[in-house]
Amino acid sequence: MAELEFDNLKFEKKEDSIRVNFLRLFYFDMPIEELKREFRKAGSIEAKDNNLYLENISQNKAERKFNTILSKNFSKLKNKLTGNKTIYIHQNSNIPLIGHIAFGIVDRNTSLIEIKPITSCNLDCIYCSVDQSKRPVDFVIEEEYLIKEFRKLVGYKGIDCIEAHIGTQGEPFLYDDMLKLIQDLKAIPQVKTISIDTNGTLLNKEKIDKLADAGLTRFNLSIDALSPELAEKMAGTGYDISNIKKIASYISRKAELMITPLWVPGINDKEIPKLIEFARSLGCRIGIQNFLNYKFGKNPAKQMEWGDFYSKIKELEKKHGTRLILDEKDFNIIKTKPLPKPFKRNQFIEAEIVLPGRLKDEKLAVKDNRIISVPNCRLPLHKKAKLKIKRTKHNIFTAFLLD
User: Fold this and answer.
1) Are 4 and 18 in contact (CB under 8 A)?
2) What stretches in the chain show pLDDT beneath 50?
3) For the chain, what percentages of helix, strand and coil (3-state, to nearest 5) are there?
4) Which run of H or of E encompasses 278?
5) How many domains does the chain have?
6) C-alpha span between 247 and 305 (Å, rounded)
7) Among the four residues 182, 330, 343, 365, which has the most C-beta atoms within 10 Å?
8) Same domain, 237 and 379
9) What pLDDT is stored for residue 230 in this prediction?
């Protein structure tokens, strides 16, 4: 009997299929009939935890053929939370990690490098700037690939004061390899700070201890209201603010904590002063964010003009005796040499369409080690497309499809 064991896969035997659970949040089903066609001499096929058992099949044959079957079935990967089709990007996928704002690595020419290993969220916030319901595709990135490409970018920058900032379209602690990611980031000598944006709902004392020990420097904890009713309303789902307050208190004793509320006009105006005092009681900073309207986001309110926002923040500074307007200097962020851009705005290029994008009718193209978002594109995958580059800022690329 062949026994196949995998670190990131867990198997469940269903009535007529084997369910393969990947990185806890994702899955696909392999029909047992398909497995029996591939392994014609197989007797029983059993599954338990990280192991799959194939009766009457040699170990060598099982390993060789099953890896091919796995590779094919990964195209059926789905997100358990959203039901979305999910794309797994790994070292052998030939998909670069620079070029898209939703996943991979984003470099805005500073010492802070953004890392986006996953797209998914366990909340349904009423103000969400990315509105998951309008995004039918999710992405998850192989941890080793992220670290490999991150190291290359760090080496290019040539400085030794890097902040690795884990900020995703969603909740980063849904990423099952998060602890390993933080440990591997910590092992890079140039990385001095590791920060993360989180809603805190997946944290507990044990996890916080492990994350702090692994090297996580700062938790940016998004709390938008202390009123239980309003906090739950803004989260769009079950949300226990009393537990989140306890989590915040515990984090403040183990690592650096920053409270990061989003000020949504007409909704949580009265909560902002309470949150300022809550942050003061914990001895941590608060970074109040201005709600902004986005075309593909949820828009429950009209955004404040920046002048009005800063005017109100200054009033709150005086009232509470707390500094609320923060800038790059407060986080020791410095400018760095820009990463070269392989394309210029309005340049005409030809690139291969390789993946669906996050939005409906968005496709992703690849050229010159960059990923390019192509909206309103209905071309089939693996088709060559003529494109006109319309955005290049910070090596995030968008292009028009030409007829």
Assistant:
1) no
2) none
3) 30, 30, 40
4) helix 271-282
5) 3
6) 33
7) 365
8) no
9) 98
Q: Check whether residue 193 and residue 233 sit in a common domain.
A: yes
Question: Do 97 and 226 belong together in one domain?
Answer: yes
- Two tokens at 216? 């996580």
What is the token pair recorded at 102?
């939703």
C-alpha neighbours within 13 Å on the C-beta side of residue 350: 3
- Residue appearing with tokens 């001895």: 283
- Exposed/middle/buried for 37, CB within 10 Å: 0-12, 13-18, 19+? exposed
**One-character DSSP codes across 107-156:** E-SBSEEEEE-BEE-S---TT-SS-GGG--EEEEE-HHHHHHHHHHHHHH
User: Helix crossing, 241-254 with 205-214: angle to 10°?
Assistant: 30
Rounded Cα–Cα distance for residues 374 and 376 (Å) = 7
Kindly report the length of the chain: 403
288 and 397 assigned to the same domain: no
The pTM for the full model equals: 0.95
Through-space distance between the first and last CA atoms of the chain, rounded to whole angstroms? 56
Q: What pLDDT is attached to residue 67?
A: 87
Q: Which residues form the domain of 384?
A: 348-401
Write out the two tokens for 292.
Answer: 């902004």
Between CA 387 and CA 385 the distance in angstroms is 6
The DSSP output letter for 103 is S
Phi, psi of 31 (to 5 degrees): -60, 135
Instruction: Give the Cα separation of 373 and 375 in Å (integer).
Output: 6
Helices (H), 257-348: 271-282, 306-320
| Per-residue tokens: 275 | 């949150």
The Cα-based distances of 47 to 5, 6, 60 in angstroms read 10, 12, 18
Residue 305, CA distances (Å) to 128, 130, 302, 310, 319 in order: 19, 20, 9, 9, 21
Residue 344 CB: number of other CB atoms within 10 A?
9
* Dihedral angle computed from the Cα positions of residues 346, 347, 350 and 354, in that order, rounded to the nearest 10 degrees: -60
Q: What is the pLDDT of residue 101?
A: 96
Which tokens is 339 given? 């990463």
Q: Point out which residues pair with 52 in neighbouring strands.
A: 4, 47
Which amino acid, one-letter code, is at 191?
V
| Residue 226 Cα to chain centre, angstroms | 26
Helix (H, G, I), strand (E, B) or coil at 279: helix
